[in-house]
Amino acid sequence: MTTPDPYTPGTPEPGATPPGGTEPQQPAAGQPGQGQPYPGQQAPGQPYPAPGQAYPAAPPAGQYAPAYGQPPQNPGKTLGIVGLVLGFFGPLSLVGLILSIVGLVKSRKVGQPNGVAVAGIIVSGLVLLGTIIVGIVAGIGIAHVIETCGDLGPGTHSVDGVTYTCS
C-alpha cells in the first residue's frame, strides 16, 4: 500500500475507489482540463517569462486582426467613396481629388486595391479641369462686359446686335 502524496490534497491511492464509488469523469477532448488551460491560465509546458523579461507586445492601436471569416478591412475605401462623390460637384472636386488620393495611398500601404479611389481621382480631376476652364471663360466674359461698360458709360447700349445694360 502506498501513501497518498501529502503535497497534492485529495490524491487517492492507486487502485482505490474514490468516495461515492464511481470513477471521476474525464473531460471531453478539446475542453479545458484535457491538457488545455482555462482562459487566462498558463498553458502546460509553457514557461512563464523570466523576471524582468517582457511579455509579447500587443499589436499597434487600431491594427487588430479581422474577425474570423471576414476579409481584412481596407482603410482607404471610405475616403475613396467620399472622394468620388465629391468629385461630381464642381469646386468640391478639389476636395474629392485630395480625399481620393489619400484613400488610395492608405489602401496601398496595406496592399489592398481601391478601384473606387482611382475612379474618384479620375472623375475629380476631369471635373476640376472642366471647372477651371469654365471659370476662365466666365472670367474673360465678365472682364469684356466690364471693359465695354467702362467705354460706353451708364445706361442701355446696343453694339453690333448685343445689348449691354451698364449701371
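Above is the first protein from milestone M3; the second protein from the same milestone is given next.
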Amino acid sequence: MTILENIVGEHAERVASLWVQRDCLALEDPPDLDAVGAIDDRLETNLDGIRVASQAAWPCVLSLHEAWPGKGELFVVTWTALELESADYVAQAVEIGRMAIDGPSGLLGALAWHPPRKIAPWVRAWIGAPDPFKRLLGLSACVEHDVDPKQMLVLRLRDPEASVRAVSLRLVAKLGRADLAAEVRNMVIDEDQQVRFWAAWALSELGLGELALPELRRAATQGDDNALRALRAAVKAAPVKEVRSWIGSLLALPQNASLGVRAASMLGDRTILPWLIEQMDNPALAVTAGASLLELFPEARQQSDLFTNDPGAAGLRFEEHFGDQAARVPLAGKVLEWARRQGYVK
C-alpha cells in the first residue's frame, strides 16, 4: 500500500467513525446540537483529505466499505462518489446503499452533506426514475435541502411505493405546501401505517393538527420509531387545556406514564422542575424525566455530574430495573442540588 493510500485510508476511517458519532448524537432525545457542530468541523477537515486525493481516493473508500460495511463507511463511499461527480461511482454507491443491511442512512447522510448544486443532476434524474429506491433518494435529498420539486411532488404523493409517499409527505410539511393539504388529508387513511403517520404529522405541521390527533396519539402510544415525533406533534396540535388532560391520562397508565413525563416538558413550562425531579427517582420514568430536563433547561448539559451511564450508580432499584441494559439516567439528588444553586427551586 502506498503512502497516499495509507493517508486517504486514515481520513476515510475517521470520517466513517465521526459520521456515525454525529448520527447517533443527532438522534438523541433531545439532541446536543453543540456536540454535533463540533463533530461537523472535524468531519470537514478529514473530508478535505479525501478531496485532495481526488480519483485516487475511490479504491481506498471502496476497500474500507468492503472491510467494514457499516453506515459510516457507506457515507464515505457515497460522499466520495458525489464529490468526484462520476456517474459510475454514484451508481455503485446507490447499489451499495440499496443492499445495506442497516439501511441507506449513510447514503442519505452524504446527500445531505453535499450542497444542492453538487447533487442536483442526480436528484433531478432520481425523482422521476422508474426505480422506487431512486425516487426515495431524490425526495429525501429534497427534504434535507428544502428543495421544492413543484408538480413532481404531487406525483410522488400518489406514488405506488409507500416509502416514497411517506417521504413526500415529509417534504410537503417541510416546505409548508398548504396547497396540498387536501391531498395530505386523504392520505391519513392510507393502507400503509407509515404513510398514515406522516400524513398526520404533515397536517400538524401545516396547522391542521386537529384533523390528525387520533392518528398522532395512536402513533405516540404504540411505541414505534415515530413515537417521539408523534408525541410532539400531538402536543402541538391541541389547545393547552386539552393537552394537559391528555397528559394526565397518559400518566395514569403505567405503560404510558413515561410518555406523559416526556410530553409535559413539551409545553415549555419550566415550573414543573420539582415534579420532574420527583419522577427521576422512579427507574421506569427516569430516562424520559432526564430528557425533559434537558429540553426545558439546556444549560444542564454543562453539568457533568447530573447524569450517569451506569444506572446502578442511582441505586439498587435502578440496577434491578435496568439490569445489563445501557441507559443514561439523571441523578435526582444531584439535579436537585443544581436546581437550588441556580434558584430554580427552593
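Note on the second protein: The mean pLDDT is 95.
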